[in-house]
Amino acid sequence: MASFRVRSGSRRELVDITRQVSAHIPSGEGAVLLWVPHTTAALTVNEGFDPDVALDIADALERISPREASHRHAEGNSDAHVLATVIGPDLLIPCRDGLRLGRWQRVFLVELDGPRERTVRASFLPGGDRS
Question: Which of 15, 19, 21, 102 could serve as a FRET partner for 73 with CA atoms 20 to 30 Å apart?
Fold first, then answer.
């Protein structure tokens, strides 16, 4: 298992980690399992060509679970925990000599309680022999 660190710059942010993920993919066919071991961060795949898409997603997440909402958790970041649960801490992406993403797709760490430094873990799962 490989891992790498990602630094976010704001409380809610989508950080494009496609290059870091690609650096951990060997040649061959299989899949990469990505995992973020944090309870206030998540992973997603979405459009990476227009940076406004990531900003729109961050804005929508704020509307879905606003920080100012009434929560029982005393730390003041329950909204981030809720969103991390909705989005999820893992991704499974097919690979064949690299990530098999769609034309506009990129891999993002979704920061929900930043700015922070996060860890992303990557495991390559080799595919079966088709001979």
Answer: 15
